[in-house]
Amino acid sequence: MKIWFDADNGPHVLIMKPLVRELERRGHTVIFTARDRTRTCELLDLYGLGYRTVGGAYGAGMWNKVKGTLGRSGQLARAMRGSGCGVSFGHGSRALPLASRLLGIPSVTMYDYEWVDPKLFNRFCRTILMPVAVDRERCVEAGMAPDRVVHFPGLKEELYLADTPLDPAFVAGDLALSPDALKVLLRPPATDAHYHNPEAEAILDAVLARLATRRDLELVYMARSDDQMAFLSGHDLARVIVPDKVYDGPSLVAAMDLVVGGGGTMTREAAVLGVPSCSFFRGRLGRVDEQLEQEGRLLMLRKPGEAAGLPLIPRLEPASAPDNAPLVTFICDTIEAAAQA
Description:
The chain is an alpha/beta fold. Helix content is about 40%, strand content about 20%.
């Protein structure tokens, strides 16, 4: 069977990589489309996954996102017409289920932040994969169609963190990080996302001020866009490294003593790997982050003053990845089942 994967965002490539290998082992062919933004195409190139580029950034604002989603849906349908795919899979790609419906292809989506508008997924997806942490009660509260939700065991980060051997030494060497420095990875908030809360920017400013008090600290700054470099102004940081190429994300996280982010994948990756992790995401908190906070694996910063409590200490324990085989098997089984329903 041919299976269509749509990589709508950079982190989706990591999620899909182990699934591709397992589906191909089962005798299927995976065809990729990719949205050219947030280094999605560069990551596909990095992992040797062939793809067809369809669409790019939509721009800020709800109208641009709606227009971009509808436009890309049409582009995807044209690009994949006649492909012979039996099912499509995406991680929250909104254009994919629309395009799949136009082509008569059943679609599976997977995501782990429940506070998004689910109407499109409810209507056009055959299956919605959610982590068990987002239980049925929370799914109903978030407006999901519970009869379409299939809960997968564990966290999505566990799907790929065991897939590639961690190589923090290579990353540290390539970035010329000092072995004696305190190494911190900082990811600003997604300021153009629909869920962005400006409170996060005030906390980011306090975080930068706290980091500037340590002269033995090296900051790896992962700006989401060029304009986010402006957040650094006014802060006398000892050393700032802005990567100029794509690195294997988990290995980058594993090279750090601390990961701080305005939400998103990297803070959860760090939590799963056992790297101290802090989030200053100020949108509505999802159940996955609630669970990680309750377990003591994720520190939430809710006010600027809480930046004083950042754990700025060297990490002694190496990062370790969980076993992902049961999760890979479960999701591939679900994709196959959606094609046969």
